[in-house]
Fold this protein.
Amino acid sequence: MKPASLQDSEPLLRVEGLTKVFHTSAGTVQALSEVSFDVPRGSMLGLVGESGSGKTTLGRCVLRLVEPTAGKIVFDGTDITKLDARGLKAMRKRMQIIFQDPYSSFNPRMRVRQIIGEALIAHGIGRNRRERNDIAAGLLQEVGLSPDHLSRFPHEFSGGQRQRIGLARALAVEPEFLVADESVSALDVSVQAQILNLLQDLRDRRGLTILFIAHDLSVVEYLCDETVVLYLGRIAELGDSAAIYGAPAHPYTRALLSSIPAIDPARRGTREVLAGDIPSPLSPPSGCVFRTRCPNVIARCGDVVPALETVRTANHKAACIRVADLNV
Ligand SMILES: Nc1ncnc2c1ncn2[C@@H]1O[C@H](COP(=O)(O)OP(=O)(O)O)[C@@H](O)[C@H]1O
Ligand SMILES: [Mg+2]
């Protein structure tokens, strides 16, 4: 056993050299390449990037819903890539995922009572139906719904309410860690804000650690302590959200940020428009994967895969060989 002080400073989740390759009929898809980052206990970390950058694959690898090709997923000191089925089941109780569209993961013929009840039964929570009902009613209240909703079917709810039910189901097993994969992306802005506030409340109240996946950077900026920016399966930039949003160092992050309506245009600097589409992961560019769309590209960018280097503060890194010239 390590001393308590050391245990507290250990991140709840450590992703190390995570690589995922899909073999498809069209060829080999490099979905993630040597991705490493930590999620400190009780924090919310934002994972952002355009569609196809590998966010969902990463979120699913972390729960081992997708088998990583290489790398470690260390959760509370245990590398879950090494666990057998039994060890994994025990670990899964501690980690839950909620999706963009919870509707597709609900059985339409089940009432909310059964949807939540199933999760409780799967993990041996509640001694009988009555106890499970009470737990489910409490969970609905915790996510801002009413116990009356227990007897309703999924189609009777709005998108925001369905997200709340998905959250109640995830919370049923009292997880420590939650992956929210584009959980608010399909909702109206006002409903988004309500769900984001709820996530924040839950983090504070339950001490949850959250990996929050989004393509909308403005949402992450407001919500997350730290941010990881993914591009074509590689980390472009990561660190404290305040540093990244205040002074983005990687040309990709700068372009992403200037594509959202600025609250404070002065802070965003000059507008850099991201040209073209994300290249096919079947044949990614050599060297820096971003070079084909980068406004600051030089010949050497095709030769070397840039390593993550510290920008200004300790907890801010960017993978760009020009990071020093661009951030003087
Ligand atoms: N099961 C799969 N089989 C083959 N390719 C996949 C599979 N899942 C994802 N991919 C590919 O991996 C890349 C990353 O996808 P994904 O993780 O869904 O990105 P994001 O969530 O950022 O949009 C994409 O090129 C996607 O087509
Ligand atoms: Mg996705």
